[in-house]
Amino acid sequence: MKASAFSYARATGVSNALELLAAHGDKAKVLSGGQSLMPAMNLRLIAPQLLVDISEIAELRGIASSGDILSIGALTRHVDLQRSPEIAAHAPLLTEAIAHVAHPAIRNRGTLGGSLAHADPASELPACMVALNATIIARGPKGGRRIAAADFFKGIYETALSPQELLVAVELPVAGKNSAHFFCEFARRHGDYAIAGLAAQAIVQGDVFTDLRMVFFAVGDRPVLAGAANRLVNVAITPPALSESLTALAGELDPQEDQQASAAMRRHLAKVLMTRCVSALLGRTDLGTRGPAA
Amino acid sequence: MPISLDVNGERVNAQVLPRLNLADFLREHLQLTGTHVGCEHGVCGACTVRLNGEIVRSCLMLAVQAHGASVQTIEGLSDSGEVADLQAAFRDRNALQCGYCTPGMLMAAQDLLLQEAEPDRERIREHLSGNYCRCTGYHAIVDAIETTARMRRGLGP
Amino acid sequence: MTAASAKSDILSELDRPNSYIGKLVPRPNLERLMQGRGLYVSDMELPRMGHVVFLRSPHAHAKIMGISAAEARRAPGVIAVVTGEELAAVITPWVGVLSHLKGLKSAAQHAIAIDRACWQGEAVAAIVATSRALAEDAAEVVRVEYEELEAVTDMRTALDPQTPVIHPSLGDNLAFERNLDAGTVDAAFAGSDEVVEANFIFGRHTGVTLEPRAVVADWNAAEERLTIYQGTQAPHMVQNIAALHLGLEDSQVRVVCKDVGGSFGIKVHIYADEMATYALSRLLRRPIKFVADRVESFNTDIHARDHRCRGRIGVRRDGTITAFEIDDLTGIGPYSMYPRTSAIEANQVVNLVGGPYATKNYRARARVVFQNKNVMCQYRAVGHPIACSVTEGLVDLAAVKIGMDPVEIRRRNLIADDAYPCVSPSGLRFELLSHHAAMNKLMAMMDYDALRAEQAALRKNNIHRGIGIASFIEVTNPSAAFYGVGGARISSQDGVAVRLDATGSVICQTSITEQGQGSESLTAQIVGSVLGVSMARVRVILGDTDNTPYGGGTWASRGAGIGGEAALQAAKILRRNILNVAVAILQSSPAELDIANDAVVSASDGSTRIELRELARIVYFRPDTLPPGIQPELMATRHFVPREYPFAFTNGVQASWLEVDTDTGFVKLLRHWVVEDCGTIINPQLVDEQIRGGVVQGLGAALFEKCIYDERGQLTNANMADYLVPMFGEMPDIDVGHVVSPTAETELGAKGVGEAGTAGAAAAVANAVNDALRPFGAIITEIPLTPQVILTALGRI
């Protein structure tokens, strides 16, 4: 399949990109890595009239840490995240999660900004950003905006960005003392989109969670920051306590039904993920991975 | 639009439509048909080439995005001899049958071996997990890459 | 093995000095493929070539009320927009039936649909333009008015009175029915200690060849000749059919096969869009290229294996299997495929169920029904995966029922290795098989007892691993019994012409074809061995109806057995002819001479008497120096067709070792084994890699692959992200071993092997999963075994 015809412009800077987007409205699309855009265009699922290539905008690159904030430019490629010592030191959840994103050739082109703006509910990075309490930095005709990751993802391929805004960077707090992370996804094959996944960031002191952010992905139309995880904070984790949280989790989720899995299956897998997460983070072998039947 | 890029060490100047993807540009404009098209949605890996030293899916890139870049295809890697040992290992192990996936496989295999000197079988399978083959069942390809890695380390096959 | 010793004088052809037979020899001409310098049809460009895009019906069943192409015809780069009616002036329709499949009926199919589209994806118009992209642009502005009709999409109700009949002239939606009743099945069941029944459900599959179907058709109006460049497995068949339907003589059509990016049976059929491409070239008087894109491939490459099969097995406490019974239902597309028909797969299922076993009681019914879905036809291992999965699944169920080890029950029922020749209840004639020898070898290779012990130990830690065994038989080297007897113009014989050229090169032309399995190599190995020349001197030409003998091509695992025998016989004749010349030149006698290492040598001590290149020089340039009367003939052609056995059956056994995560339903394939008996092995590496590739297609069937149609007949996963093919990360290493029972029908003794891996792999995996889940009492007889299917069977969701 060949993409429909379109015009192409290389944005020289953020303002230039914003001008082009404002001038063409919904007939224009931003091209960064193109790893999600190009398949859709090749399949003629979408046919924008103008592609605004932002890949030459230098200010959108780079990973920098200053104090307790890690700042990642929107054009940072997945492979850059994977190789970054700053990320490994300050946000190891990302380092682990990135290995599950597609395949090496895709990771060499795909960008963080692209992945977040695309907001596929089954993708890894949006969930990681919510787990890491990240802030999305957007810029539009009216200036800059800071949006908490937890408020950024609105639905399938839907974000808080307005059509004329560009995602320019992501900021996240550096992992503190006693930080721990967990990442797991169930996918049919290496690199496939997950059927169900979990990105978690926690603070563990002794055998207790003093903070626990569990963000499930591929189980709804957006990443789900599980309220059920709050029940596990500052309490002793006993099998009954976990069991209650699992039930609460099942109640919280409204997963979709598709060719890969039914809603019931996704709920079940989410519970397995939660159990494995708690076990891994606390080093427990007694909690089992058997949750109550759905 | 005019583009200027380096392909297998040769400077190429061309006029292309924005919608022309890199795979079609290489195959149709430069007659470098060693890069194959299998799906055009970035899943099969048959179109893998090297861009600025890193492997990419040429069906997911526009030719205009390659302006100013250095592209290497299987023809270039073959002519320079860079993957001669990998190719010999593939031949000796019969790690190709119809040959359609092979250029992409060699690209991905070389990419792995440039990054890691001692990949085990699981690591080989992981790095190549985005390259589809329907003929070989993969086992022979893993063998050939494993053998090449050992030879490059100065060990026997 | 008695057969081997009796054939010791026949084997001498293969035991010649420096023979390549049985040797691991790298295939010649791989460099071209590895350097990206192959020539696949999708690479080809001819002057003034047009690109065709087919506008395809979005509906599973719809009347075509009208097509407006005016705007499309004006679109940039457009050469023509052609409807079915317009193309019918150039190409006639066809019907996919064969007379030996009694009762098989089908309706006429046109190259481009006229009046009615019968599956989602059927072509309703052709847009030809100067590039694929421009043709796609124009296709978007062709207006087709459809009146949707009710679609037949459930094979289970296809024959119900209230279901619409797709082709009213046929009376109903039944394409074909076959019934078989052998022995005394009812008495056998009555006399059994246990009778087990199960419903086996199979996913619809497709081949997903990495290079999609591609054709360049070049009608030269001045020469009145059509050259078809196509990755077909059967070029003479394509030549014959293209000529027939275009109103040409065979000699006006040339079919050329260059490199082919995978086929597996997908590219052995006649496709409407490819026939349309030939016709368009004729109509437009210029070369036309058609390359299916990936979505088109999913929607129009033949599908296969869409079966629902109820099976029953009777067994006695001592493990004796008393009877097999099946009732198989398969839903094909709206047309039986041409010319090999879409009844063959079901026919094979009936033929093959129970095949490895001594049981004489067998009853079967198979029905093939039309549906408004993509067409279905032969794909690697045709029918065998179904038959093997049903048979081996039933045998395991019987074993469980009587508390017997699955290997033990097989040992008590597999046909004895010394019971040959014999005939199966379905009429299959077995020359010589080795089920027990193969099983013994498998047990040693996999260390069965150790795996059972490991399984037991891990179960205590809640880790659930399973072992699955699958014995199977495989059809190879088919005679005319497959297609020819039914009236198909598909040749079941093949030919090889071999010649010594003026400077000592050996040129072979063979009618078998190459899709990566090593046809070129096996031909060169045989010729080199029999002739006494080094393979480096041998050049093989194939895939060109102008430049090879007439033959069947490569399919049904016949290339090595039939084409290889023709090569052997031709090379024998050439060797004799060369020695006749040598005798004259050297004033010697035939008994004193042989050919080895590219030279005529003394038979007694191997010393060189005259180099072949020197002998050739004399023959071609200095025949004046030869003794009077002699007419040298340095070219020989021989054809071969199996006459004694309609098929050369092979046998094998496979095993799967896997782990099921009972929390998630995910299966990890740990290892796989195959022991295969394909007779004489020409090149062990070619054989083993064919087996491995075939196995992985079967593993894909077991766990991943399924064409998912909705109730409206829409194929909902027509892309490579949603139709899951096996990739590196999920596949195990595969160990391959052999037993060798050559066929006495040829000097070569080779049977086929290309499909064996696919025949038994899914059965082994299914048995392994059920074995792993035994403690939970779950039994699953459906593939693909997705995590959802497994969790459901476990009652976890």
What does this structure look like?
With 294 residues, chain A is α+β, with helices and mostly antiparallel strands. Chain A is built from 11 helices and 14 strands. Chain A has helices at residues 14-24, 37-42, 78-83, 85-90, 92-98, 104-107, 112-118, 124-131, 149-152, 239-252, 263-282, and strands spanning 7-10, 28-31, 50-53, 63-66, 69-73, 135-140, 143-148, 153-155, 158-159, 166-173, 179-186, 196-205, 208-217, 224-225. In chain A, the strands form 4 sheets. Chain A has a 5-stranded antiparallel sheet with strand order 4-5-10-6-7. In chain A, strands 11-12-13-14 form a 4-stranded antiparallel sheet, with helices on both faces. Chain A has a 3-stranded parallel sheet with strand order 1-3-2, covered by helices on one side. Chain A starts with 6 loop residues before the first strand and ends in a 12-residue tail after the last helix. With 157 residues, chain B is an alpha+beta fold. Chain B is built from 6 helices and 5 strands; from the N terminus they run ββαβββααααα. Chain B has helices spanning 22-29, 74-79, 84-93, 102-115, 121-127, 139-152, and strands at 2-7, 10-15, 48-51, 54-57, 70-72. In chain B, helix 3 (84-93) crosses helix 6 (139-152). The mean pLDDT of chain B is 97. Chain C is α+β, with helices and mostly antiparallel strands and 797 residues long. Chain C is built from 20 helices and 30 strands. The radius of gyration of chain C is 28 Å and the shape is globular. Chains B and C meet through helix 2, helix 3, helix 4, helix 5 and helix 6 of B and helix 2 and helix 18 of C.
